[in-house]
Amino acid sequence: MSIESIIQKTVSHWMQASGRLNDVVISSRIRLARNLEGYPFPLELSESQALELINQVKEAVAKAPDGPFEYVSLSEISPLERHVLVEKHLVSPQYVENPMGRGVAINDDQSISIMVNEEDHLRIQCFLPGFNLEEAWDCAAKVDDLLEASLDIAFDEKIGFLTACPTNVGTGLRASAMVHLPALVMTNQVNRVLGSLPQLGLTVRGLFGEGSDAMGNLFQISNQVTLGKTEEDILANLSAVTSQIVDKEREARQSLSEGAKEQLEDRVWRAYGLLTNARLIPGQEALKLLSDVRLGADLGFISNLELEVFNELIVSTGPAHLQYFAGQEINSMARAGQRAILIRSRLINADREEQRC
Question: How far is it, in rounded angstroms, from Cα 82 to Cα 165?
Fold first, then answer.
């Protein structure tokens, strides 16, 4: 596996339309922050120390029984390739801005990535489709155990895992669910429903996590606090609240279907018509239209398209992906044209494949 094969594999495991509550929950993620004893936090690392850390991690992941992992040095790939990794949710947006002394280990189906020398020495991520927090936690815990068997992880008996940011001290665990909430947005309930989450120890972020905007009616819900709580407490709280949000979204969808079905169907089919006929589609408009069509598929208005197609297009229509596959940097107008071609081709082909079945 190489950076080319990682990028060429357009469908990561988390994009599959499987898992519980997958009509609303797109994916579940567990992220663990870990640091090594004897080294300063990444911001204070020397070049030689960063290299030592990288070599230790590479040796550790090479022992993975379920491997293989591919290690990608950020300084050895192009800025465009780095941003493709961001769009695939394998690394964070801030991580790629300074590539020196940084790299990421990625497994074959791209469900696991281990960022080295991000805010912490290690950021272990496990992504799964649908609402699968417990399974994602089991996955991340196994990777954590693998690394702990070879590395001296910084841990204090009183406060837990030591991290660069105080908000991660303790378990070092960030659990999140990416949810699709078009009906709550359409019925103007989303601010009320999500606005109460901070009081429950949760936070809401956009498509690419901290500092990003909510696009395409996609939101990431995650825990805020790691200190003083067990992993089980964090997962139970997020699971309970996310289940309630799913119920609210489903109720809003039902209300729209019963009270304004004709208008809703018209909105869905107009979006489908634009996506399958437009010649220029800007990025944010694409996500909005894909959200409407995905809602139509969830409600059964469009019965011949797999949900996986929409999960894939959320990623593959990003600017870095479009430019990578174009083989060069292209301006926003050219990207809008390439995006329209990709979406049109993918939806029409998916429609034909379903009809043949």
Answer: 24
From first CA to last CA, the distance across the chain in angstroms is 32
pLDDT tens readout for residues 325-345: 999 999 999 999 999 999 999
CA gap 118, 104 in Å, rounded: 10
pTM over 0.85, yes/no: yes
Spatial separation of the C-alpha atoms in residues 66 and 8, rounded to whole Å: 22
Which ranges of the chain does DSSP label H, i.e. alpha helix?
Answer: 3-8, 47-61, 79-87, 133-150, 182-186, 190-195, 231-259, 261-277, 283-298, 307-316, 319-326, 332-356
* 3-class state of residue 270 by DSSP: helix
How does 41-80 read in b/e, with b if 16+ C-beta sit within 10 Å? bbeebeeebbeebbebbeebbeebeeeebbbbbbeebeeb
Is the distance from CB of 59 to CB of 344 less than 8 angstroms? no
Cα–Cα separations (whole angstroms), residue 294 to 123, 188, 208, 255, 324: 32, 19, 19, 17, 26
- pLDDT value of residue 8: 81
Give per-residue pLDDT as tens, 40-60.
999 999 999 999 999 999 999
Assigned CATH topology for domain 3-253: Creatine Kinase; Chain A, domain 2 (3.30.590)
The pLDDT, as a whole number, for residue 5 is: 84
Return the residue matching tokens 């964070």: 92
Q: Give the separation between CA 236 and CA 216, rounded to whole angstroms.
A: 27
Q: 183 with 233: CB under 8 angstroms?
A: no
Residue 303 above 90 pLDDT?
no
Nearest Cα neighbor of 202 from 144, 249, 244 is 244
- pLDDT (mean) for 273-290: 96
Contact 136, 25 (CB under 8 A): no
Structure tokens at 158: 């009183």
> Which stretch of DSSP H or E encloses residue 126?
strand 122-129
Per residue in 199-229, pLDDT (tens digit) is 999 999 876 555 556 688 999 999 987 878 8
List phi, psi (to 5°) of 327. 85, 10
